[in-house]
Design goal:
Layout: E1 2-4, E2 7-9, H1 15-23, H2 29-32, H3 37-40, H4 44-54, E3 64-68, H5 74-86, E4 89-94, H6 96-99, E5 108-112, H7 120-126, E6 130-136, H8 139-145, H9 148-158, E7 159-171, H10 173-180, H11 183-193, H12 213-225, E8 229-234, E9 245-251
Parallel strand pairs: 3-4, 3-6, 4-5, 6-7
Antiparallel strand pairs: 1-2, 7-9, 8-9
Length: 253
């Protein structure tokens, strides 16, 4: 991770990299979770509204809710407020350093450690009991650092009948390329950069560490083969990266 005059260039972030961000001096709550302020500031209410529309179990009462890789931006705070109002049990999983930025509440249980590798006891305790799981802007780091199928399997094992898992804000490089190859994408790029240049795109290339259509569809297939319903869902147009990110909703029938 390189920080220069609050302009950030991140190496591929790992669990330990996020721990470093959590304890670094002078960072905003968005920067601590790996985003420049321009990508999240003023957007998290809209992001949470989109999450609520997909994780409909959050609108019920007395649910068991997990947020895996919760971070310390406004999103876990908004989820905590919903949990307070709806009398949910909320389990937050992340590093101890990240969790230290989240206020302690009687209905919140904090579980520090790498999911699922270091939280096997927690997974066994809640197996088949969780009504809603949020994994937001996290799966891309799992993909680089660990087994994405092991992560998915562990999440699915937690779901109660009718339980919902939202793997949200997936940066799909295939979707990104489709967008920037379109007329709308070219206009977006030119307006953003202030130039008349077209985006530089490379197709039919190996792109290590990047999630593409094949990865997203393999997660769909994996979940369905295990007996779950699974869907790729578009993000609301209100969201800042909706034109190049998407969500995955998995439901236990």
């Amino acid at each position: 991770m390189c920080i220069r005059d609050r302009s950030y260039t991140f190496d591929p972030l790992t669990f330990d990299g996020f721990r470093e961000l959590a304890t670094a001096d002078g960072l905003s709550r968005h920067e601590r979770v790996g985003f420049p302020d321009s990508y999240r500031d003023g957007y998290e209410t809209a992001i949470y509204r989109d999450i609520r529309a997909k994780l409909s179990n959050l609108s019920r009462s007395r649910q068991t809710v997990f947020d895996i890789g919760c971070g310390c931006s406004d999103l876990p705070m908004l989820l905590a407020e919903t949990s307070r109002q709806r009398k949910h049990e909320l389990v937050l999983c992340d590093s101890a350093e990240m969790l230290g930025h989240v206020a302690d509440e009687p209905f919140i249980r904090k579980e520090p450690g790498v999911f699922p590798r270091e939280l096997s006891d927690l997974i066994a305790e809640f197996a088949g009991r969780v009504d809603a799981i949020l994994v937001y802007s996290v799966i891309q780091y799992v993909f680089v650092e660990a087994s994405i199928f092991d992560f998915l399997d562990a999440c699915c094992s937690l779901l109660a009948p009718g339980g919902q898992l939202l793997i949200g804000d997936i940066p799909n490089v295939s979707k990104r390329k489709r967008f920037f190859a379109s007329e709308a994408g070219v206009r977006f790029h030119q307006e953003f950069t202030g130039s008349e240049d077209s985006p530089v795109l490379e197709f039919n290339a190996v792109e290590r560490s990047k999630i593409d259509d094949a990865v997203v569809l393999s997660l769909i297939g994996r979940a369905r083969a295990a007996g779950f319903d699974a869907y790729v869902m578009a993000q609301s147009s209100e969201l800042p990266m909706a034109n190049r990110r998407e969500d995955l909703l998995i439901v236990r029938p």
